[in-house]
Design brief:
With 64 residues, this protein is α+β, with helices and mostly antiparallel strands. It has 1 helix and 4 strands. It has one domain. The two termini are 18 Å apart.
């Protein structure tokens, strides 16, 4: 579960698998990244999209 801040200022938790859809729909405006102990603003923050820009080498991360 991911801690989120919604557009209407409510806080809650969502399934990680639903986070991207909720961001796209504009429901979630920020989420908590526990690894770096910070809130990430979805409009201004550093969001990992799964795409590596500028890297053309082999994919070395483990895939699901």
């Amino acid at each position: 579960m991911i801690r989120v801040l919604c557009r209407d200022k409510r806080r809650g938790y969502v399934q990680q698998s639903n986070l991207q859809d909720l961001i796209t729909m504009g429901v979630v405006v920020a989420f908590f990244r526990p690894g770096s102990n910070e809130w990430v603003d979805v409009h201004e923050g550093n969001i990992r999209t799964g795409k590596i820009i500028g890297y053309e080498g082999p994919e070395r991360r483990k895939t699901k």
